[in-house]
Design a protein that fits this description.
The chain is mostly beta strands. It is built from one helix and 14 strands. Strands 1-4-11-8-9 form a five-stranded antiparallel sheet, with no helix packed on it. Strands 12-7-6-13 form a four-stranded antiparallel sheet, with no helix packed on it. It has a three-stranded antiparallel sheet with strand order 10-5-14, with no helix packed on it.
Length: about 190
């Protein structure tokens, strides 16, 4: 009985082999193609850095955050106010970018005032807001930073400031300087 089963299986395999080889065969391939688009980086300045009510002869230390519950500038007369610049960066989700900042070392008088404001920068003069945790990652803007853009497509927000020293005899008035933000994909 076993021998008959073996022969039957062998005969069936031969018939399948003969039947299968009786049909013509050909190989072909399927090409898969994907196209991508270039996602440009968009950098916009939502607001510039402002320092209000600073006193001549005083050096101030600031922290580049926007948090109503914390004081982000040293206070001497109690009236000082600091609002960091807010830079918004949009680009490809999860892309690695490098941020380089060229900063003014001195703010010059806007009108005919005498004096100037010296600027220094440290590891709390700039921060990037982590949209997932809501925490700030601080960095020295002179050194720049490399970050990944969020995966949800919302972009990154950078806060930027610095530590002003009002050199006496600086007159009452407005002092200005220009910073340049350079953002590029790695």
């Amino acid at each position: 009985m076993r021998e008959k089963m073996k022969r039957l299986i062998l005969v069936i395999c031969c018939i399948i082999g003969i039947t299968g080889s009786g049909y013509p065969q050909d190989d072909s391939y399927v090409r898969f193609t994907a196209t991508t688009t270039q996602v440009s980086l968009l950098v916009s300045v939502a607001s510039g850095a402002t320092y209000e009510n600073l006193e001549p002869g005083m050096s101030y230390r600031t922290v580049a955050v926007v948090d109503p519950s914390s004081i982000n500038i040293t206070k001497f007369n109690g009236e000082e106010i600091f609002n960091p610049a807010q830079i918004e960066i949009e680009g490809a989700p999860n892309a690695q970018i490098i941020i380089t900042v060229l900063l003014p070392s001195r703010l010059q008088p806007y009108d005919a005032n005498i004096g100037y404001v010296d600027m220094m920068y440290d590891n709390q003069s700039a921060s990037v807001l982590d949209p997932t945790t809501g925490n700030f990652k601080f960095f020295n803007p002179v050194s720049g930073i490399s970050i990944s853009l969020p995966g949800n497509g919302e972009g990154a927000v950078i806060f930027l400031g610095g530590n002003p020293t009002v050199v006496p005899p600086s007159a009452y008035g407005e002092y200005n300087g220009i910073g340049i933000i350079v953002v590029e994909y790695t």
